[in-house]
Amino acid sequence: MPELGPGARPGARSVVVFVGLRKNPLEHRPAFEAAHREGYAVVLLAARPPAGLPGALLAEARAVDPHDTAVFDAVVDEIAVRHSVAGVVTWSDAGVEPAARAARRLGLPGITPAAARLARNKYLMRQALSGQPHLIPRYARVRTLRDAEQALEHVGFPAVLKPAAGSGSKGIFLLRSAGDLPPAFAELDRLTGADGDSIFRNDRGELVLEELLGGSEHSVEGFVHRGEVTVCGITDKTTTEPFRLELAHQHPSALPPAAASAVRALTREVVVALGFDDCAFHLECMYDEETGTARLVEVAARAGGDFIGSHLVGLASGVPFHENVIRVATGRAPRVPDRPPLHAGLRKMMAPAAGKLVRVDGLDTALGVTGVQHVVLDRAPGTTVKLPPEHFSSSAVGAVIATGDSAESVANALRAATDALHVEMAPGPEGHAPGEASTHG
Questions:
Q1: Is 138-211 CATH 3.40.50.300?
Q2: ATP-grasp domain: from which residue to which, for each copy (predicted)?
Q3: Is the Cβ–Cβ distance between 171 and 191 less than 8 Å?
Q4: Which end of the chain, N or C, is less packed with Cβ atoms under 10 Å?
């Protein structure tokens, strides 16, 4: 009989409420399977529940906008009447605040709504850490071009201008001179304005200008359970220039012990200071080898996306990360890996130009490379692909996931597989939003 969390009612079918899903089926399927292995069915609350969900693992799916507070809260109350709800989980930034509100409403474990707000607004996050300036870059809130010009006097060059409530590397602009500011601000004003991306609906027109941190880039995957911080691993990241789109991940990190200790220390200090508890976290930071210091980029109150949580951590450690997400959400401590890790990594296929995706060739060759676990296609043939700054996510056509007994063997497998893949583009019509169709091999 499965171990019950504090919200479960004996004799009733226990469920975990998912507020939203990751977009790719290969990434969201492990979340359902993790809930099943931990003894729960899933109730999905999402604006547009996708087709093809695993029916045997799904108790119910409801189409509801998590940001429509009154309607969402009413649906949560209905779900609590029909099911024994043991926990609430979100898998994306957009669901962090609604999930926190639902958990609090039902008296279940979860991050507080106040801490969730800090997780979703980078300016408020930095303000909460302002008494610990060694953790964060110099920063300022920006709402107007004049704000940004004045902020640069404090922050200096090079700098980064980005949305306060960004997600998925949307809208990150590097500023190396005064001439870079006006076009960057104009584009971000469009992106975060009233007619812009819905991810910014609660923080319209709010930007953060901060110093560009040097060093290597990393993410930290872990949990906070009843005040105890568990770091499950550090991931090394590679990003593109100049828009800092994430290109590749390697887990576990190749950082030397002293550097890894600095990153872990930063992580614990940040999540405690922000009041995170009873949640997963995905923290991004920069490590400066010259000074031996780590500083925060941002921290999310949910599992890492881009297949880090769904695949890389579990493939490397032997302990599926998503099972621990379910455990913590239902009031139980995470399981810590107790065996030497393998290595896992991901590298993305980027569109070589804007236009219409015709096809991706070389899949059989890529899947035949030793160590390759998956080749993921995020765009279907015929999809219109746009490049930054016009659009920030559609240029990633797919990704390769590989494992090996060393970081070098994983890197070699990813390189061989992506070299075997050829993305063919054709000029596409203007003005069509990129599609979200996904397949995987």
A1: no
A2: 126-330
A3: yes
A4: N
